[in-house]
Amino acid sequence: MAKLIIPLLLLFLLFVFSPSNAVSYNLVSFGARPDGRADATKPFLRAWASACQSVRPSTIHVPRGRYLMKPAVFRGPCKSRILIKIDGTILAPNNYYAIGNAGNWLLFVQVTGLSVLGGTLDARGAGFWACRNAGRNCPAGARTITFNYANNILISGLTSINSQTTHVVVNRCNNVMVQKVQILAPDQSPNTDGIHVQFSTGVTIRSSGIRTGDDCISIGPGTSNLWIDHIACGPGHGISIGSLGKDLRESGVQNVTVKNAVFTGTDNGVRIKTWARPSSGYVRGVLYENIIMKDVKNPIIIDQRYCPDNQGCSRQ
């Protein structure tokens, strides 16, 4: 069934965003300059507002060049579908405090029928990691691109570089396709998960390469019907379910498939980690198939006594 849904979704999105059917908004025409220095945040939000109010499907085009963006929230619901076509690079400010206290750099909330195609997101996370590694008083850090309460989302051909924390977050969403993405951060960059999914159903991640300092893909509570295939992971900490069971009342994880994945030089391969505490959480229906491990320290881990700091660990 999943193999049928994927091409049907892609064909539908291609139809609704055909050139004859879509209204186009060029980011430069809203005042953005592709020099990497002028602040493009307000022009991008104005373009989003126009597209969101359009009753016809819309395309926001980000031409070639470098566009400086501060934290931005793109809110729905919108009147029709929106395609963001990125041919350039969206760049975070060099000062890591500029996005570090926001929690999210680029946040999409309550949108339906959004596609993000191509382009590069460069969060310039190195300064933030240096602050963390030095033990200084640092901001909490920002996730690069987050989708909250969103439905029918396509992310294709996107490259994410040097996120402060997690690169891509899918939270409380339905029917999300992530394909042909590249996620890049040094292997020593702290807590830079590639893709994190939680409280979401019907998410597919495929044909992507993830090289980062933490989990390539992390799967949190409330995830169901997650399909992962043709992933190249490494360096990083592998594909991880959890940690789960930290709270007494917690949603479970079920129907997770990981197929045709290659792990190279990772700390872990596939992992399930749960706290040894009373919890309503659970893990069911997990399939790992055709997995190749190359120089992986811990190929398969199922740990039901997860306690990373070894302090106050339950023995239950």
From TrEMBL:
PROSITE patterns named in the record: POLYGALACTURONASE (PS00502)
Major localisation: secreted
Leader sequence residues: 1-22
Keywords for this protein: Cell wall, Cell wall biogenesis/degradation, Glycosidase, Hydrolase, Secreted, Signal
Classification via InterPro entries: Glyco_hydro_28, PbH1, Pectin_lyas_fold, Pectin_lyase_fold/virulence
Active site: 237
Highest taxon of the lineage: Eukaryota
Gene Ontology biological-process entries: carbohydrate metabolic process; cell wall organization
Subcellular localization: Secreted, Cell wall
One GO molecular-function entry: polygalacturonase activity
Residue ranges of the TM segments: none
Pfam families tied to this protein: Glyco_hydro_28 (PF00295)
UniProt record similarity statement: Belongs to the glycosyl hydrolase 28 family.
Protein name: Polygalacturonase-like
Species this protein is from: Nelumbo nucifera (Sacred lotus)
Lineage summary: Eukaryota, Viridiplantae, Streptophyta, Embryophyta, Tracheophyta
